Amino acid sequence: MQMAEVEISTPIPEGAVRRLQAGDHVYLSGVIITARDAAHKRIIHYLRGGRDLPFSLKGSALYHCGPIVRRINGDWHILAAGPTTSMRMEPFESELVKMGVKIIIGKGGMGDRTGNSLRRYGSVYCAFTGGAAALAVKHIESVVDVKWLDLGMPEAVWILRVKRFGPLIVGMDSHGRSLYEEVRSEAMRNLEEILKHLSG
Questions:
Q1: CA-CA distance, 127 to 104, in Å (whole number)?
Q2: What is the dihedral of CA 15, 119, 24, 154, to 10 degrees?
Q3: Amino acid 135: pLDDT
Q4: Active site residues
Q5: How many CB atoms lie within 10 A of CB 128?
Q6: pLDDT tens per residue, range 170-186
Q7: How many other β-carbons are positioned within 10 Å of the β-carbon of residue 193?
Q8: CB 159 within 8 Å of CB 10
Q9: CATH class of the domain comprising 5-199
Q10: Closest CA to 102 of 62, 54, 140
Q11: What are 30-77's pLDDT values in tens digits?
């Protein structure tokens, strides 16, 4: 199957996400929201408490990232914005997908609970290359806003305007396919063959 290169802008309609297949390359323009562990916990606290969030998740792209930021002459400037390990957010992510997150960006993939939500609500998980924090900055045009700075600079929610942010590789699509699971399954098959060969 030939993989596609797709341009997507925020807010992201479900139809655009449903057309994506695992392995496709996505270039994202518009606004993305960063959130790490502490921000996820606070988002869940707000949602379960019936409080309005100070930003919208509907049709959003959520980036697992703790950027390095500097304030120069009153303006925020992103110095580095590489992805953080997504599995740490696994206990929370399904609720955020339910609230409207359409593209999750991170590294390392996520678990079955998130995968089930991706299928149910029409969302995808995309991988951004680890160790490419400087590359990410080239596609960030500006800081639109920042929320919850009391959590600390890396854990705050940064709202960023981006242009052709990517390439993002669809690692888990809305149809149940996961590149991470396929790699794990292939590794297990190879291991079984090796063990058979050694024991034979």
A1: 8
A2: 100
A3: 78
A4: 40
A5: 24
A6: 999 999 999 988 766 66
A7: 10
A8: no
A9: alpha beta
A10: 62
A11: 999 999 999 999 999 999 999 999 999 999 999 999 999 999 998 999
CA distance 9 to 42: 27
User: Given the structure tokens 């396929």, which residue do they identify?
Assistant: 182
The domain ranges of the chain are 5-199
**Could you identify the residue written with the tokens 């002459």?**
73
**Spatial CB neighbours of 131, under 8 Å, sequence gap ≥ 6:** 82
Where helices occur in the chain by DSSP H, the ranges are 14-18, 37-48, 90-98, 112-121, 133-137, 179-199
Please name which of 179, 189, 150 lies closest in space to residue 24, comparing C-alpha atoms.
Answer: 179
* Distance (Å, whole) CA 119 – CA 174: 4
Task: Give the mean pLDDT of the chain.
Answer: 91
* DSSP track, 42-75: HHHHHHHTTPPPSS--TTEEEE-B--EEEEETTE
* pLDDT tens-digit readout, 115-165: 999 999 999 999 997 666 677 899 999 999 999 999 999 999 999 999 999
- Four-point Cα dihedral 20, 128, 100, 177, nearest 10: 40
